[in-house]
Write the structure tokens for this entry.
Amino acid sequence: MRYAYYPGCSLHSMETSYDRSVKAVCKHLGVELWEIPDWVCCGASSGHSMGHLVGLAIPAKSLVKAEKEGLDVLAPCAACWQRMVWVNHEINSSPEMKDKISRAIEEEINGTSKIFSIIDFLAAFGMDKLAQAVKKPLKGLKVASYYGCYYVKPPKVAHVDDPENPHLMDDMMKALGAEAVDWPFKTECCGASMIFQDVDTTVSMSKKIVEMAYKAGADVIVTACPVCEMNLDMRMEQINKKFKTNYKIPVVYFTELMAYAMGSVPQEIGLDSGHCTDTQLLLAKIS
Amino acid sequence: MSSMLNLSAQQREHGDFADRVFEESGVDVRKCYQCGKCSAGCSVHICGGMDVSPNRIMRMVQLGMEDEVLRTRTIWACVLCSTCTARCPRDIDIARVMDTIRIMAKKRGITEGFNNANVFHDIFMNSIIKYGRVYEAGLFVALKLKQSGTMFADLPIGIPAMISAAFRMPKLPPKMKNSDQVRKVVENCKKIEGEN
Ligand code: SF4
Ligand code: SF4
């Protein structure tokens, strides 16, 4: 099995534990990843604030390379993934837009490569198959799966899981032997790139999520989005300061727990040191 | 926003605003019946990040309050999480409308609603036009310089988080064979859009 891999800027810079754990899981499952050569940033929210066409053409520039190679794409960052899914959506619904995008990137793009988020990609293996690959079951670990927005909304383009009550990440956590806590804020927005513009509002948004996971009795929050991870993990201290709380819930990528359960050591994937929240208690619990 | 509005004059002068929003976004805001569901689920709004709630923006578009809408903080503060879009009983893509109006405001140079957001987008785009990928260290420094004294007074994110961030952040710009790709795409887009 060979897939084009689009890591995106976050996985290549600050969020290396996501990059490393995705690669480790793929290795455990026998998936070969072909990193798109010379990929560029997806443009994120700034790209499409400049114009609809720019917002589509920038991610198309990397996508077309995978298309030419005849490969489907794996894009673990939920934000990059959604930008790419939009490209295919627009190409397939408007020949005029397809033409404009092709001219902007100076190459013909047809929207033929499927684009997988890491959640639907891994869930497609089937829970039985994932469970079979587990060497160290995460027994007794209570996990709050936090999906965020970009992976489930808008349902018109992001239609792999239930937009209000997604379950695929929970299912996978159960396949690893963990307990999936039921909680209401699975898709509540973390504030996304607002963190660069209005810290106060974003910290309040993140706090609601952490508080709910805490009330639900979670030992750990897992995410599949670098933006969510940063807003919860890096802001925990600020949340505690602002709201005079004492939350100490580690926030990690679900792929870190999966790679660990499938045999990777924490140092290899950054589970020991890749986060601002303390993962020592978590490691003690699962080792 | 002034508290009194002459609706007839508004309609006469800006009655086509909803039509232009429709042309640009493909979304018909006239279908909105003001149930308020979009605002009820908007986390940014609930946490105080907007000056006008999303459902009011829809109503203002219907009424042709173009200048007022373009000057709101809301159109910039919307993070396009699309929770509103997923829940609207009238199948209105509110997020898309926000995005469209923000582009309209940007094209007309109206950014006072939330200039920090505009500055962030500009610096981000400059970074990827220059390097092809985001260069975070450069981005943070530029942001701090431009936004200092305002929201960014509290950029320091706590000592451990800061050390961890500094540790994780690459110090040098990303290395690529062709870092000019985004610049070309952006230029081409400008040309193509100029044709219309
Ligand atoms: S949810 Fe839809 S119909 Fe209801 S107020 Fe918002 S835009 Fe209007
Ligand atoms: S897309 Fe924008 S308006 Fe809609 S819920 Fe999210 S932040 Fe609010």
Observations:
- Residues 7-110 of chain B form a domain with the Fumarate Reductase Iron-sulfur Protein; Chain B, domain 2 fold (CATH 1.10.1060.10).
